[in-house]
Specification:
Layout lengths: L3 H24 L3 E10 L2 H22 L19 E9 L4 E8 L5 E4 L23 E2 L18 E3 L5 E6 L5 E9 L12 E8 L5 E4 L7 H4 L4 E5 L12 E7 L8 E4 L21 E6 L2 E2 L17 E3 L6 E3 L1 H15 L16 E3 L3 H8 L2 E5 L4 E4 L5 E5 L2 E4 L1 E3 L8 E3 L7 E6 L4 E6 L7
Parallel strand pairs: 3-10, 4-9, 16-24, 17-23
Antiparallel strand pairs: 1-2, 1-12, 2-3, 5-8, 6-7, 7-8, 8-9, 11-12, 11-25, 13-26, 14-15, 14-19, 18-22, 19-20, 21-22, 25-26
Bound molecules: 2-acetamido-2-deoxy-beta-D-glucopyranose (NAG) (3 copies).
Length: 446
């Protein structure tokens, strides 16, 4: 019997393991990709998601607006938040249960739909059953998050009879949404698991999708999971709805990032915070808009927060269309009317917001007349919107330009919605506090 071969083997094994360690820890930064689809949520579903996302803002405003003057007033009144949602599926719990989540760079807390999978009342089959997960735990009332007046976070929470942190809310239509704040892990693989993250667990709601809150707040998924960067490519929306193209979502390094051009995030100090500003949103410096090659006469000032915080320009994956403040919107509308006004569907407004609409038979002609649009940012970075992506079919026979007036929705910001992020890589580089854009062919990535 000789020990020589096994020593050699051990040595080789150590060398190999060392190599693996170096590969994963040094040379290959964390990178994980997921399929991304865009889906129209049902109206009920989207209105509930709407509430959950704006919970923080509205609860502040109604309960202690004076005490908390710097809370954002992004109280979207419309269903354009989540009406066309970007959906990814994440493995949550131990063992993992796949959960569909709306990817939302505009909100903080993540939510999953929690239901016991009781056979007699079939819940949405995609919901999460806490009793099947060994890593699930509830947040006790003593947790700081359950106390009101946490600086950047307040939910209408209460202590339930089990001393658990509970929230409940009645919608305008009288239906009830409620649940608990909980902790749960995301289990990507046996070796890659997040620590337990604080999530909302919606127990009383008919919706199927959860929300993945990805803003700059400390309780967002990105912050809690210490994600250094993430990116996505929104698939092209097909007019005929028969095929569902799939894009890509990356956590960590994106192999395409060498082609990205970056704009720094505008950051806001605690002392600078203003009533209409959302300091946790991804705010970038927009400098102008070009339509059909012509730079519109819009002052850069309207794309920046003013003294009251109105006018910041944010990149939001959770809002469908793009919304511009009055001064910018008027210039865009003026130009589009100049180019294609003869065919405008007069008096027609879609969803209280889109008022540049046309009968569908003119679609091609309108696209040709309006041409491409370019959104311009600091550092020479541009988003080109092809003329084929200027109009959206909002109902049978009617196409509208996918841009609305922020004020009509009660929004004080400029918002770049996911309609204008199609076939585009958008990277949120948290470590370097910047947003990158790159040309993508998203629908063929997976
Ligand atoms: C949607 O809401 C309406 C009224 O609010 C209700 O009648 C309907 O049953 C709901 N649909 C679903 C699928 O929950
Ligand atoms: C729908 O669009 C896709 C992609 O453009 C195309 O391949 C498919 O044939 C279309 N289906 C119908 C029924 O028009
Ligand atoms: C640009 O707009 C401003 C105010 O909106 C106006 O005073 C100025 O004359 C305009 N410039 C041109 C070249 O139209």
């Amino acid at each position: 019997m000789t020990s020589f071969p096994s020593t050699t083997f051990l040595l080789l094994l150590v060398t190999f393991l060392n190599f693996l360690y170096i590969l994963s820890a040094k040379n290959a930064p964390f990178s994980m990709s997921f399929p991304l689809t865009s889906t129209t949520l049902s109206h009920n579903s989207s209105s509930k998601a709407l509430f959950l996302s704006s919970l923080i803002a509205t609860s502040h405003q109604t309960t202690n607006a004076k005490a908390m003057p710097r809370v954002p007033s992004l109280n979207y009144k419309s269903t354009f938040k989540y009406s066309m949602a970007l959906i990814i599926t994440l493995p949550i719990g131990t063992p993992p249960q796949n959960q569909q989540m709306v990817l939302d760079t505009g909100s903080q807390l993540s939510w999953i739909q929690c239901h016991k999978k009781i056979p007699k009342v079939p819940p949405p089959t995609t919901s999460f059953d806490p009793s099947l997960s060994s890593s699930f735990s509830v947040l006790p009332c003593s947790h700081p998050l359950c106390k009101p007046r946490i600086p950047d976070f307040t939910l209408p929470t209460s202590c339930d009879q089990n001393r658990l942190c509970h929230y409940s809310y009645f919608y305008a239509d009288g239906t009830l949404a409620e649940g608990n704040l909980v902790r749960e892990k995301i289990t990507f693989s046996r070796s890659q698991t997040t620590p337990p993250l604080i999530l909302g667990c919606a127990t009383e709601s008919g919706d199927a999708e959860g929300i993945l809150g990805m803003n700059l707040g400390r309780f967002s998924f990105a912050s809690q999971a210490k994600v250094q960067k993430f990116s996505y490519c929104v698939p092209i929306r097909q007019g005929n709805h028969t095929v569902k193209p799939t894009g890509t979502f990356y956590l960590g390094q994106n192999p395409n990032s060498r082609t990205f051009r970056y704009v720094n995030l505008l950051t806001f100090l605690q002392s600078q915070r203003m009533p209409n500003l959302d300091p946790l949103a991804y705010t970038i410096g927009m400098v102008g808009i070009k339509i059909n090659g012509k730079k519109l006469n819009i002052s850069e000032r309207v794309f920046r927060p003013n003294a009251g915080g109105s006018g910041q320009t944010i990149v939001d994956s959770g809002t469908e269309y793009t919304f511009l403040v009055e001064e910018a919107y008027n210039k865009v509308r003026e130009e589009i009317i100049k180019l294609a006004g003869r065919k405008l569907k007069k008096g027609y407004i879609y969803g209280d917001a889109l008022d540049m609409c046309f009968d569908s038979q003119y679609r091609m002609e309108i696209e040709r007349l309006i041409g491409d649009m370019t959104l311009q940012f600091e550092n020479g970075v541009e988003i080109l919107i092809n003329k084929e992506r200027m109009l959206d079919e909002v109902e049978g026979g009617i196409h509208c330009v996918g841009i609305g007036r922020s004020e009509t929705l009660g929004i004080a910001s400029n918002i770049i919605g996911n309609f204008h992020q199609q076939n585009l890589w958008v990277e949120f580089d948290l470590r370097n506090r910047r947003v990158g854009f790159g040309k993508g062919e998203c629908s063929t990535q997976v």
